[in-house]
Structure formats: C-alpha cells, structure tokens
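Task: sequence design from structure.
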C-alpha cells in the first residue's frame, strides 16, 4: 500500500523516480473511487498547455513508450507521489481566482491522464466546480475508456497525434494508431474543442507522407482549433540516462527552420490552422 505524501510543486523537467515503490503497475491499477492517485509534479504558471494561464498537473502512468518521450519518469505509477484528489483540489483552489482572471484554468497532462480515470475525473469535476476551464493532454490511446460524463467535465483536449502511418506510430510508441484516430473522430462528432499536437522528430516523424496524412485527417474537423508543431528536443535525454533506459535519439538533432517551415506549409496547404 502506497503512503500518502505531499505533492511538491516543480517542473515537468524534474527527475522524480522511485517515490512509491509499492504502487501497482500502470496497466493493472484499479482506480474506481479516484480519491487517491499518483502524480509526478505540477506547474503553476504555464502559458503553453491550453488557453490563458494554466496550472498543469502531471499525473503518472503511461502505456505508450515513445522513443522521444521527455518524461519517462511518468511512465510508472511507482515513480509518482501518492496524493489525495482533495489535496490536489485544495492546492488548485489557492490559484483559482488568478487562473480565472487570466482566462486560464487547469490542464492535466502526464504520463497518460486516462490511466487513472477516476482520479483525474474527480479533479476535473472539482476544477469545474471552482469555475475553472479544464483541459487534458492525451495520446488518445485509451480514449475508449472515457464516458460522456468524463467528456462533459472537459472544456478542451490537447490531442497528441504522433503519426498518421500505423507502422510509424508503432515504431514511435510501441502501440496501435487506431484508438487515437477513433478518439479524435469521437471528439469531432461532439464538437469538443481540440488542439492537435504533433511532435516533429527528424528521421522518425518528418516523412512528408506522414505529415500529409495527419493534415488530411485533421483538416475537415471543425472542432480542431489549432495544430501545434512541437519540435523534438533533448531536454529529457538526461532522464533516460539516469533511468538506465536505451535512448535511441542521442544523435537526433532538433528540426531545422527549413524542416519546420515545410511541415507548417504542409498543414496550411490542407487548410489547417497551424503554429
Ligand atoms: S504518450 Fe507522452 S508520456 Fe507516454 S511515452 Fe509518449 S510522450 Fe511519454
């Protein structure tokens, strides 16, 4: 049984490992009540993870293994801090009026938010009660787990579409692409506000056909407000080393301005709003 601890503020770039060694594996967690859960950290002033000023809560647990992940210390619940949802909401309440006045709110990211569905549902519902705008960042891989009430506690979704090509998606994440596309279509069918995020990794996701496939898939979706290109970076490389994981991108460079321009233009050419 994990011990409840205080969640320290910090950054997504902090390395946090081995904090709850008795935690279940992320694919076996029975998170029915949602009163407690595992978190990596939280940031209090992001302007990057949704509209306005955001508190961003990084929860633990992910079933994907993206080769370029900059937070492998969020993969396992064992690495997270075991906290109560009420503690998270109490902290959030302290920022609520500032967040409201800055047109912001709460974003839950990870890891993968849907690994701890009841826990994140409870926090999202609590944030809504405070009158806050709510968002999640997700790969959509577990989108089938989400019911209507979960979606109704969400104002928007930051949806990571890592590839349009099933083989590339498998190479990047170790998992299937189809659930992500299915979740994207479901969000489109209910008109849920979405920002699509695409991580541009030279030599891995930059193939023109791969980019075009995402652009053609997203372009007809009226609910997708922005496509955001996220250039690959090495800020998480030290975590792979510290965790003794095999890192395949030691020699991968950040995308050149020319490559970024090409990709932006590809999205624009299909009619997407992209930045
Ligand atoms: S989905 Fe996100 S947290 Fe999970 S492995 Fe991929 S980049 Fe990392």
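Answer:
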């Amino acid at each position: 049984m994990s011990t409840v601890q205080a969640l320290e503020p910090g950054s997504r770039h902090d390395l946090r490992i081995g904090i709850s060694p008795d935690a279940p594996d992320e694919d076996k967690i029975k998170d029915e009540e949602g009163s407690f859960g595992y978190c990596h950290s939280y940031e209090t002033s992001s302007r990057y993870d949704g509209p306005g000023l955001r508190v961003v809560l990084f929860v633990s647990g992910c079933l994907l293994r993206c080769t370029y992940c900059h937070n492998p210390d969020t993969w396992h619940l064992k690495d997270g801090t075991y906290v109560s949802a009420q503690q998270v909401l109490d902290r959030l309440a302290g920022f609520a009026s500032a967040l409201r006045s800055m047109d912001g709110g709460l974003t839950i990211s990870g890891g993968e938010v849907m690994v701890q569905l009841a826990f994140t549902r409870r926090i999202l519902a609590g944030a809504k009660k405070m009158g806050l705008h709510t968002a999640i960042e997700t790969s959509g891989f577990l989108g089938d787990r989400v019911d209507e009430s979960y979606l109704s506690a969400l104002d928007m979704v930051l949806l990571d579409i890592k590839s349009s090509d099933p083989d590339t998606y498998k190479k990047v994440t170790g998992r299937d692409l189809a659930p992500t596309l299915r979740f994207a279509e479901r969000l489109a069918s209910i008109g849920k506000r979405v920002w699509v995020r695409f991580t541009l990794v030279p030599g891995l996701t930059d193939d023109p056909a791969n980019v075009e496939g995402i652009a053609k898939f997203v372009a007809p979706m009226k609910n997708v407000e922005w496509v955001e290109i996220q250039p690959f970076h090495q800020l998480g490389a030290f975590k792979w080393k510290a965790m003794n994981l095999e890192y395949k991108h030691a020699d991968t460079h950040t995308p050149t301005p020319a490559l970024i321009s090409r990709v932006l233009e590809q999205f624009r050419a299909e009619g997407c709003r992209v930045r």
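The beta strands are 36-46, 54-59, 81-84, 105-109, 133-138, 156-160, 193-200, 224-231.
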